[in-house]
Write a structure and sequence with these properties.
Protein name: DUF6596 domain-containing protein
Strand content: under 5%
Helix content: over 70%
Domain DUF6596: 198-298
Pfam families: DUF6596 (PF20239), Sigma70_r2 (PF04542), Sigma70_r4_2 (PF08281)
Structural class: mainly alpha
Organism: Tistrella arctica
Domain RNA polymerase sigma-70 region: 20-83
Strand order of the largest sheet: 1-2
Number of strands: 2
Distance between the termini: 74 Å
Number of helices: 19
Shape: elongated
Length: 434
């Protein structure tokens, strides 16, 4: 009996592992067939239940992913036939001869679904990513839906990641599904002129997820490595499917290089470790190597296509400057300042300008950085943005203007929603004296 129970547990663990790996592909293929995201998720779950009931008796199939997909597709076709039959019954109840209302659309959908039984459907996951990241949704909804559909995170896990109540996140996901359904979108990878804006949205969402892990905007922790890992996984999926796009490779390079420093950004007590104090011997050299390889490919592609380097490729080049420097003193700040000048041209924003101020402050002295940073002081877009007074405080401190620096550090501490960052800023204010 114990041996039987142990075998059943082993099969159940295998089923769950396979489902976790195949979930996004299942949902993507079903959504493309049905044009109904909620039903696609339900049918994918049904396939899991069927596997849990069948595999302990029959054994694990040679190709478990294909078994799950075939099971889910058969049930999808059954649902389409059921919907068509229900439509005919409603027509009869309305005393309208069914023949007078030919369901051509229903017939076409069933034909498409049955044809898909033999279709390779190689783009299911990528198509699902493009759908989940559609610009018709808000940035927050896109990120949440991507983590749910592609990452397989439960609603409570996503809620914790973005520090909202589970009920709030559940409502956000429901609204996102309804919005996509009402928009009547095609569940496929856009082609031609439609690709560029949609790809930009996908890259934005993946990097949004990564950044929320790399520098948490709120909560008790400075970083959330699990979110960084999920964003990097999405980046790998995208890069494998679109290896000829410079910006896709640029984003992969950027995330790999940035992630290499995660373990050194937090001290044992949970406080932040600034870049100049990080132990570079602990940076992940494998990730750096992977990132630099992807960056070289991105820059090579941009050169061959005669394209200006895009924002993700430029940001990866910036990260590479830090990764290549053996220590903080050896950082090539002149090159970094020049890269930020280029980045501001292709992606103008107050945040880029603020980072440019930091770079110029390091390359040309704190007063040069202050000249740039102070142009942002009255911008409504940065009102309440904690990094602005924090950067100004740092530049003032380096310029020897301690009293002014202290005021800015205190202001920044009052604006941040991250507890660890607040403590760090208050410590810097205290170091400036009274």
């Amino acid at each position: 009996m114990a041996e039987t129970d142990e075998r059943a547990d082993a099969v159940a663990r295998t089923v769950e592992t396979v489902f976790r790996m195949e979930r996004a592909r299942l949902i993507g293929g079903l959504a493309r067939m049905l044009r109904d995201l909620t039903r696609a998720e339900d049918l994918a779950q049904d396939a899991l239940v069927a596997a849990l009931a069948t595999w302990p008796e029959t054994g694990i199939p040679a190709n478990p992913g294909a078994w799950l997909m075939a099971t889910a597709r058969r049930r999808a076709v059954d649902h389409l036939r059921h919907d068509r039959m229900r439509g005919r019954k409603l027509a009869e109840l309305a005393q309208t001869p069914a023949a007078a209302v030919p369901d051509h659309d229903g017939l076409r959908r069933i034909a498409r679904a049955e044809a898909a039984m033999d279709d390779d459907l190689g783009d299911e996951v990528l198509g699902l990513i493009f759908t989940a990241c559609h610009p018709v949704l808000t940035r927050e909804a896109r990120a949440a839906l991507t983590l749910r559909l592609i990452g397989g995170l439960a609603t409570d896990e996503i809620a914790r990641a973005f520090l909202v109540k589970e009920a709030t996140m559940a409502q956000r996901l429901v609204r996102a599904r309804k919005t996509l359904s009402a928009a009547g979108l095609a569940w496929e990878i856009p082609r031609g002129p439609a690709l560029a804006p949609r790809l930009a949205s996908v890259l934005e969402v993946i990097y949004l997820i990564f950044n929320e892990g790399y520098a948490a905007t709120a909560g008790p922790d400075l970083t959330r490595p699990a979110l960084c890992a999920e964003a990097r996984r999405l980046g790998r999926v995208l890069a494998a499917a679109m290896p000829a796009d410079p910006e896709v490779l640029g984003l992969k390079a950027l995330m790999d290089i940035q992630a290499s420093r995660l373990a050194t950004r937090i001290a044992p007590d949970g406080s932040a470790v600034p870049l100049d104090a990080q132990d570079r011997r602990r940076w992940d050299r494998l990730l750096i190597s992977q990132g630099l390889d992807a960056l070289a490919q991105a820059e090579g592609l941009a050169w061959r296509l005669a394209e200006t380097r895009g924002p993700y490729t430029l940001q990866a080049a910036l990260a590479a400057c830090h990764a290549r420097a053996p220590d903080f003193a050896a950082t090539d700040w002149m090159r970094i300042a020049g890269l930020y000048d280029d980045l501001e041209l292709v992606m103008p924003s107050p945040v880029v300008t603020l980072n440019r101020a930091v770079a110029h402050g390091m390359a040309h002295g704190p007063e040069a950085g202050l000249a740039i940073a102070m142009t942002l002081a009255t911008l409504p877009a940065l009102a309440g943005y904690a990094p602005l007074p924090a950067v100004i405080g740092d530049l003032l401190c380096r310029a020897g203007r301690k009293a002014e620096a202290r005021e800015h550090f205190v202001d920044a501490a009052g604006l941040t929603r991250n507890a660890r960052e607040r403590a760090h800023l208050l410590a810097r204010a205290a170091a400036c004296g009274t």
